[in-house]
Amino acid sequence: MQFVRTFELYPFLDTTISLAAAFLLGTLIGAERQYRQRTAGLRTNVLVAVGAAAFVDLAQRIAGTTEAVRVISYVVSGIGFLGAGVIMKEGMNVRGLNTAATLWCSAAVGACAGTDMIAEAALLTVFVLAGNTLLRPLVNVINRIPINEQAAEATYEVKVMTSREAMPEMRDLLIERLEEADYPVGDVEVTDRGADSVEIIATLVSTAVDPEEIDAVTSYMEDQRDIASATWEGSTKD
Predict the structure, then answer these.
(1) 79: domain range?
(2) What is the pLDDT of residue 126?
(3) Whether residues 7 and 115 fall in one domain
(4) Is 148 contained in some domain?
(5) Higher-confidence residue: 83 or 215?
(6) For residue 91, with 0-12 CB atoms within 10 Å meaning exposed, 13-18 middle and 19 or more buried, which class applies?
(7) Kindly report the CA angle at 80 between 78 and 81, in degrees rounded to 5?
(8) What global pTM score does this model have?
């Protein structure tokens, strides 16, 4: 049997240790993700870590270090596709970037374990857990700091609700008022909001605004007879 001829006890034990280390460390990372009810939780992170370790260990045993390095590069690109699956775009907001980054790190932990760098894999796990837990209070503090709209780099949209019949005139008026306030419009979209209502969404070229100036534009638009409402909002690019 081919298995009997190729089986070697010590390399097998080495693979067992690598996969066990990847399983344990992936469990630590995944448990934190599972506790926070993220899309990629315990099982996903464990499988990513173990899978990366298995591919790297297999390449190293068959063809040596050079091929192991090549496989690691494929693992990195492959995890990129997997991470893209957990990233979701909701309007102007993007969710899942942290989860995708954690999967990427789980693959790195597995790759370290697969090359028998168990200590390095454990150290990386500590840093991943620290990034997802210890930095959370700092993130909360930063998020509570009021944003200076004049300094923040963001994407701004001005939204106007009007009738379908008055849409062309109100769209031109909105663009005119924004340009008079030195806020050129990069794009304009018109979305149906009912049988006879449409929403005009003007995306500004500017990445920083003066709230009072934009408020003045929306107030002017609301005073128009054919305008039901006028608002504006901003979202950071990151």
Answers:
(1) 2-143
(2) 95
(3) yes
(4) no
(5) 215
(6) exposed
(7) 70
(8) 0.61
pLDDT in tens, 106-158: 999 999 999 999 999 999 999 999 998 898 888 888 767 765 655 556 788 99
Burial readout 130-148 (b: 16 or more C-beta within 10 A, e: otherwise): eebeeeeeeeeeeeeeeee
Half-sphere exposure of 25 (CA within 13 A, CB side): 36
| Same domain, residue pair 87 and 115 | yes
Looking at every residue in the chain, the average pLDDT score rounds to 85
Q: Say which CATH number the domain at 171 has.
A: 3.30.70.260
Distance CA 235, CA 92 (A): 7
DSSP notation for 102-134: HHHHHHHHHHHHHTT-HHHHHHHHHHHHHHHHT
Where does a domain end: 94, 111, 143?
143
Query: What does residue 145 show for φ and ψ, rounded to 5 degrees?
Result: -75, 125
Half-sphere exposure of 214 (CA within 13 A, CB side): 24
Instruction: Compute the distance between CA of residue 185 and CA of residue 178 in angstroms, rounded to an integer.
Output: 7
| Residue 130, phi then psi, degrees to nearest 5 | -65, -40
Is 54 part of a structural domain of the chain? yes
**Which value, in Å, is the radius of gyration of the alpha carbons in the chain?**
27
* Domain end among 113, 143, 173: 143
For residue 118 the two structure tokens come to 């168990």
